[in-house]
């Protein structure tokens, strides 16, 4: 009994530690593939709605990990950081180092269909610019992606 009680007392600390862990590349790829599977099963509109819904099933790690969808012209179709980004053409967007990361994303999508690309982005949990790498995969002429921050 005493051992069970001690174990239960440690559970919240363990859960907090696990929640604070950084997202992994494998987890990021799985999230993108899950979003594509959701779109295939439920339709694009349902996927767009779920990806954009705050705290939805395609969000994790306190807001650091989320799915986005772009079309092949650079327009945001869905974004885990909110509906305010939807419809905005980001084709000429540059990171603080001048990297045209959306053009890079589209080039990767058109040449390989999936893969990783690097750029700088503001981390929504720290509000600081950090190196980021995103995994993208094309489905139905749309670019599904998610990224992780490099620490």
Automatic annotation (TrEMBL):
Keywords: Cell membrane, Membrane, Signal, Transmembrane, Transmembrane helix. Pfam families: sCache_2. Residues 1-22 form the signal peptide. It is found in: Cell membrane. One of its GO terms (cellular component) is plasma membrane. Residues 17-103 form the Single Cache domain. InterPro entries: sCache_2 (IPR033480). The keyword Membrane applies. It is a multi-pass membrane protein. The keyword Magnesium does not apply. This is Cache domain-containing protein. It comes from Candidatus Geothrix skivensis.
